[in-house]
Amino acid sequence: MQYSAAGMALVASSRGALDGGATPQALHAHPEGSVTTECDVLVVGGGAAGIMAAIQAGRAGAKTLLLERNSQLGGTTTTAGVSFPGLFDAWGKQIIAGIGWELVCETVALDGGTLPDFSQVPDRHWKNQVRVNPFLYALLAEEKCEQAGVRIAYYEFPQSTHKTADGWQVDCAGFGTRRRVLCKQIVDCTGGAEVVGLLNLPRLRDQETQPGSMLFKLDTAHNPGRPNGPGSGLLDSVYVHGADSSNSRTVTAANLNGRKSVLKQVRTAKKRLMHMQPEAGFRESYRILGDTVITVEDYQSGRVFEDAVCYAFYPVDLHTRSGVTPKPLARGTVPTIPLSALVPKNSQNIIVAGRCVSSDRLANSGLRVQASCMAMGQAAGAAAALAARQQTTVSEVAMEDIRDMLRQYKAIVPAV
Ligand SMILES: Cc1cc2nc3c(=O)[nH]c(=O)nc-3n(C[C@H](O)[C@H](O)[C@H](O)COP(=O)(O)OP(=O)(O)OC[C@H]3O[C@@H](n4cnc5c(N)ncnc54)[C@H](O)[C@@H]3O)c2cc1C
Question: Which of 44, 154, 190 to mutate for ligand 1's pocket (most ligand atoms within 8 Å of CB)?
Answer without folding.
Answer: 190
